[in-house]
């Protein structure tokens, strides 16, 4: 990694390092066994890393895209290359609205800055990073206050320091509750097909010493039936005006199960994941990914395939959970009910 080029703008989080002119990402496809950093200072390379899920999680892909544009601006590249890079990044993944929001903010700040557009792009990208850290802190405090001593909490996918620039959203609430002395037990759903729960959430929980148990997605019903889950906390990639939300595939099934078992189900997300232009979940674009991800698995161990070569698959990366299955939406503003959302 290069030395800090400008101490005033250097930023570092669990999985992202920016030195003022270069951006590095912890390659999440190699975790938990290999901790390898990859450079993402160009818009093309950052977009490729976002598509490959080397960097992932709705808030973090927005921050990473913004900082990679800052690197392009700093590099002396022409304005046209900066704007083409923004378009490439915007299109890298379709579901998390944070990505488009972050790119638009950096482009908008540069557009308003005249000749100072390079400095302004860097400044805005750093603001995006700092804001995400602050949003996570506020969300985590609101979420932690909901959790009672002795609760078992099921979460899905990864919403921690590997998904944000800060402590995370749903994960941040769990972390803050634990650090504040609430005795809790986290059940991490493994999150097929890319195993963000098994590879990433289990890794983060272990590093922090939070008591946890890994379960496969198909165990959620049995776990709830056994009385081990008192609350479900999940993140979101995009929340529509009526409260429907898209999150990692499998979230909807967990919400239905929680409803059946009368277990509170909370969506934990910053305002940057809310899309005021989207009236309901029907308007949220859902990413479909490579069939190979369903036919097998890949990671630091290499690639394995267990289904017959060429087996037809369906591989949506996200599903939409209807608002009626949600107990509350935890944002930096507090714990919101359906009536607080602004409607659809
Ligand atoms: O495909 P991923 O790993 O980027 O999906 C991530 C999720 O679904 C998270 O739950 C969501 O982005 C919220 S992260 C705070």
Could you walk me through the main structural features you see in this protein, from its secondary elements to its overall organization?
The protein has helices at residues 43-51, 58-74, 79-90, 97-112, 117-146, 170-179, 196-208, 220-225, 251-260, 292-295; strands at residues 11-13, 16-18, 23-26, 37-39, 151-156, 184-189, 212-215, 231-234, 238-239, 245-248, 265-268, 296-299, 302-305, 318-321, 328-331, 334-336. It has 344 residues and is α/β, with parallel strands linked by helices. It has 2 domains: 11-136, translation initiation factor eif-2b, domain 1 (Four Helix Bundle (Hemerythrin (Met), subunit A)); 146-340, Rossmann fold. The protein has a 7-stranded mixed β-sheet with strand order 7-6-5-8-11-15-16, sandwiched between helices. Strands 1-2-3-4 form a 4-stranded antiparallel β-sheet, with helices on one face. Helix 2 runs antiparallel to helix 5 (117-146) and helix 5 (117-146) crosses helix 6. The chain is globular. It starts with 10 loop residues before the first strand and ends in an 8-residue tail after the last strand. It binds 5-S-methyl-1-O-phosphono-5-thio-D-ribulose. 5-S-methyl-1-O-phosphono-5-thio-D-ribulose is lined by residues 53, 56-59, 96, 157, 159, 163-164, 168-169, 196, 235-237, 247-248, 317.
């Amino acid at each position: 990694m290069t030395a800090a080029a400008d101490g005033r703008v250097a930023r570092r989080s669990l999985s992202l390092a920016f030195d003022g002119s270069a951006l590095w990402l912890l390659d999440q496809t190699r975790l938990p066994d290999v901790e390898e950093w990859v450079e993402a200072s160009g818009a093309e390379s950052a977009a490729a890393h976002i598509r490959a899920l080397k960097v992932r999680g709705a808030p973090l892909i927005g921050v990473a895209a913004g900082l990679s544009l800052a690197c392009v601006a700093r590099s002396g590249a022409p304005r046209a290359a900066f704007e083409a890079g923004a378009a490439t990044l915007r299109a890298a993944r379709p579901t998390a609205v944070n990505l488009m929001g972050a790119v638009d903010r950096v482009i908008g700040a540069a557009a308003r800055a005249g000749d100072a557009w390079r400095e302004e792009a860097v400044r805005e990208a750093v603001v995006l990073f700092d804001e995400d850290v602050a949003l996570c802190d506020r969300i985590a405090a609101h979420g932690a206050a909901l959790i009672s001593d002795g609760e078992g909490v099921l979460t899905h996918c990864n919403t921690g320091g590997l998904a944000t620039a800060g402590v995370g959203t749903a994960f941040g609430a769990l972390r803050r509750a634990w650090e504040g002395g609430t005795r809790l037990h986290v059940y991490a759903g493994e999150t097929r097909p890319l195993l963000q729960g098994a590879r990433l959430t289990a890794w983060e929980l272990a590093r922090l010493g939070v008591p946890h148990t890994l379960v496969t997605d198909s165990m959620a019903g049995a776990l709830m039936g056994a009385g081990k889950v008192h609350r479900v906390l999940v993140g979101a990639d995009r929340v529509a005006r009526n409260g429907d939300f898209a999150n990692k595939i499998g979230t909807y099934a967990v919400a239905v199960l929680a409803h059946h078992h009368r277990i509170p189900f909370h969506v934990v997300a910053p305002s940057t994941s809310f899309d005021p232009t989207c009236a309901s979940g029907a308007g949220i674009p859902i990413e479909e990914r490579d069939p190979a991800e369903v036919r097998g698995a890949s990671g630091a161990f290499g690639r394995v395939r267990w289904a017959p070569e060429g087996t037809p698959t369906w591989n949506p990366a996200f599903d939409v959970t209807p608002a009626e299955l949600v107990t509350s939406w935890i944002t930096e503003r507090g714990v919101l009910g359906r009536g607080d959302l602004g409607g659809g």
